[in-house]
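Reviewer 2 asked us to include a model.

Predict the structure of this chain.
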Amino acid sequence: MLMCMGVRKAVYVTDADLELWERAERYAAEHRMKISGVVLAALQSWLDEREGRRTPR
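Predicted model (structure tokens):
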């Protein structure tokens, strides 16, 4: 059985942003997602908006 493992990256969250991070963690848990999926979806949306692209929904 072949398992794909992603590259490990660290995200540092300041005390000022801790509430936002915790909201994202709750959202991920409620939707049976990993926090990395929430972060990557947010990054994709943010970049698409700034680059004038449309994100398919």
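The chain has two helices and no strands. The helical segments are 18-30, 35-50. We have added this to the supplementary material.
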